[in-house]
Amino acid sequence: MAYTNTNYQKLSQRYLFAEIAQQVNDYKAEHPEAQLIRLGIGDVTRPLPKASIQAMHRAVDECADGKTFRGYGPEHGYDFLIDAIIQHDFLPRGIQLSREEVFISDGAKSDTGNIGDILSTDNIVGITDPVYPVYVDTNIMAGRQLRYIPCHAGNGFTGDIPQEHLDIIYLCYPNNPTGAVITKEKLAQWVKYARENDAIILYDSAYEAFIQDEALPHSIYEIEGAKECAIEFRSFSKTAGFTGIRCGYTIIPKELTSADGQSLNALWNRRQCSKFNGASYISQRGAEAIYTPEGQQQVKDTIRYYMQNAHYIHDSLARYGLTVYGGEHSPYIWVSTPEGEDSWSFFHRLLTQANVVVTPGEGFGKHGEGFVRITAFGTQEASIEAMQRVKKIL
Length: 394
Ligand code: MLT
Description:
The protein is an alpha/beta fold. It is 38% helix and 14% strand. The strands form 3 sheets. A 7-stranded mixed beta sheet has the order 2-8-7-6-5-3-4, sandwiched between helices. Strands 9-10-13-12 form a 4-stranded antiparallel beta sheet. The longest helix is centred in the C-terminal third of the chain and has 27 residues, at 293-319. The chain starts with 15 loop residues before the first helix and ends with a helix.
């Protein structure tokens, strides 16, 4: 007789976006005529950059020929992609990395979810609230104790530095779900806290490409001392439309050691070699292509498209009298619900009366109550139409 991991019984019945998908599908089954506009899950709608498409076509052709066919790739990822990442994402910001510090993966969701494999279940974990549910769920699965760090307009949704000791802290900027950004000064306070407490920051910067202000940090390693206390997660999903292709990467500096003196880099390498067989050669070639001059321009154009949606959604909702955050350096717009309405009830009203799908803030944590999250990843037409429909029901 096998027993299960009973920590799973402490989870909510469904993953947030699966729960929403179920509710939306139920509604659609009852109202097949409804023309739904989906601005809930942060899934992209623009096609892949042309440079990536061409590179992936070439990669497929290579695999069609025995002389250039590729089987298992290197565990860390291919050097051609690792070098492009170091060269373009880090060196221009004064951050030196060696190849061994970059781990290519199938995306930031898997890596932020799996990183706990190399960390003790006795660690106390600080979770900003509201938060991307993966950090919460995966730590509940592991049986770790969580401490929530309230994020609200009063602290710019960046959390107050805790008075208590934490071992691990998840930070995500630009933030999912609030769309907030963090300044170098505030991030430096988090780094100082981590160093003083021998804690590790798990820094998710999957949305860094949406930052519009060069003074804001794109990487935690722009902060002095961060290499000794932080792991950074990046993704090509939102930057280059890879939600379906799958490719991302994680940086674990060699300087980073645990409280018991272990190299996190060595442990993650060990973990990946045993449990992961790499992102496909084709997707890595596609990712590499975004660093070519054409690829860079195409990515910029796509980000600009989504940011126009973000500004349009932000400004429309503000005009309708709602309090609106985010959408300035982020594809997420964080909106207060109308006076006295809770986030699930506003979600249902938007779904049933406007046929617009958003994400209820409470799904991201207790401090998300009173908000909904809207994504700018829809098409321009859908974003405009959604705002017209929302206006009518307010
Ligand atoms: C979201 O909607 O929060 C994201 O799409 C989730 C993800 O990137 O996994």
